[in-house]
Each structure stands twice: as structure tokens, then as C-alpha cells.
Amino acid sequence: MKHKKIFWAFLVWTSLLACRVFSPFGGSDLPAQTGNDTPVVISVHDSKISPVDQMVLVYVPEGDFIMGSDAMGYGDNVPEHVVFLDAFWIDQTEVSNGQYLECVKSGACSPPGDEQEFGLYNHYDEIEYKDHPVEFVNWYQANDYCQWAGRRLPTEAEWEKAARGSEGWLYPWGDERPNRELLNFKGSYGQVNPLGGTNKVGSYPAGASPYGALDLAGNVSEWVADWYEQQYYKNSPSENPQGPASGTTKVVRGGDWATYDVVIFSSYRISIQPGLTLSGIGFRCAESGP
């Protein structure tokens, strides 16, 4: 009983922080949002396919970008500052249930958390959900997967550049406000919107980032490599920042299917204890360039 109370206290805290609403029935048991069925041309600088998990990776060239946001400042994502990053590759989509299952079968990954006692469910080993993003994985499990696949978790800076490009866009697709043609999310804050659940990875090509990465907003939030520090941006390195040397929580980025529009923008940060497994949190991997 004590563990349940701790879990629910934490869940309420994260819900308020991220403006999320968790369904008591879990994500994938609810009707999925449809996404954009109109053909969209995605601009990709370069791409390749991983020989391990068949993930498509897109290339992000070296150079400066704007990290953080003064206009959308939430305290821990200010000040806005220019950061230089070396070239890198990043997964075009979030890691799917089917891909994660292969890592489990190989013995390199442990199964996602089973949260059924809280009314939330994972479907990672069910064929009808194989193309949905994996959920209920903690930071350590995400890290294990990326190592198995011959990659690593992206740094927080890499994730944000992949999402915003070099022009400092608010969202992966530009500065247009979020809508259901661009991403899978809860909807407008303050309105009564139906909860959805995850959709298949890559279902929103109109929401692609400048480098052709998909689902960097919505669907599931994503673990990144960095430890979290609230004031890190005030003194962070201007070249290839790796985050604090230590900490108690890890950074999660990108919003999810139960996130309102007010926290969908690409510079928004949230911190989660690395050992927790929650509905709505998954990951993607990265690889150093060229």
C-alpha cells in the first residue's frame, strides 16, 4: 500500500507539471487518433538503415542552433542560447514495440514494466501494437536498447536540435500551433478533449522536423541521456553540452498522447526518476556522425 501511495503522489505531481491527463484505462485501450492521411513530402538531408533493428536514421549536420526559449520560458529552459553541435544521426521515429520485443528476445533488454495494478497496460508483445511506440520503459531499459542496437540515447541538446532545426522553431513543423494533423496529443488546454492513446510511429508526416524526424512532438515523451538540473542552461557549455555530471532525475522531452498543447513546444523540459516506467514515455536512439 505504501508503494501505491508513493506512485500516485508522483503521478499527480508529474501530471500537474506536464499538464497531462492519465486515463484510468491506459493508453492503447482507447481509440487512436487518425493522423494525417494526406501525402506529405518529408525533407531528409540524408538517411541510413540500422542493420540491427532496421530503424531509419536521419542525419543532422554540424552547426549552431538556438536552445531554450525566452518567449516560452518555464524557468528551467531559459535563457535562450546558441549551441554548436557536431554532426549526428537520430532515429526517424520512436522505437516501436516490435523493435523492443526483438531486443527482449535477444536477452539484451528486459520486458517493459507491467503496471496493470494501476489500471494501465502495455502491449509491447501484441502483434496489433507492434508498430506503436514502446511505453513503460525506464531510462535504464532505453539505454540498454540503444546499446544493443549499436547506438546511444541522444543528448538533450541533440534531441532539441533535431526537433527545432537551426532556425529556432517553436515546434518540429515550425511556429504553427499544434493540431491533430501534426501530432498525437491531448488537445487544447482548458477544453474537454477525448484521450486517445498511442498511434503507429510515423503517422504524422506533416509534423516532421527540418531533418525529417517524426513524432518529436506527441505520441510518447522520450528519454534523453542527460541528468536534469533546473538551472543548467544558465551556465551550460556552448559546444556539445552533455548535461550535468550527476543528478537524481533524467530529462524527458517531447510531450505525449495525453499532453496538452501548452507544453508541446520543443524546448519544454521535464524530469523523471530514471527507474520509473510510465504510460506515455518511450525513447529513440542517436549515433555520432558523420
UniProtKB/TrEMBL annotation:
Pfam family, one: FGE-sulfatase
Claim: Cell division is one of the keywords in the record: no
Segments traversing the membrane: none
The entry's keywords: Signal
PROSITE patterns noted in UniProt: PROKAR_LIPOPROTEIN
Top-level taxon in the UniProt lineage: Bacteria
Signal keyword on record: yes
Signal sequence residues: 1-20
The Sulfatase-modifying factor enzyme-like domain, residue ranges: 57-286
GO terms, molecular function: formylglycine-generating oxidase activity
The name this protein goes by in its record: Sulfatase-modifying factor enzyme-like domain-containing protein
The species this protein was found in: Candidatus Brevifilum fermentans
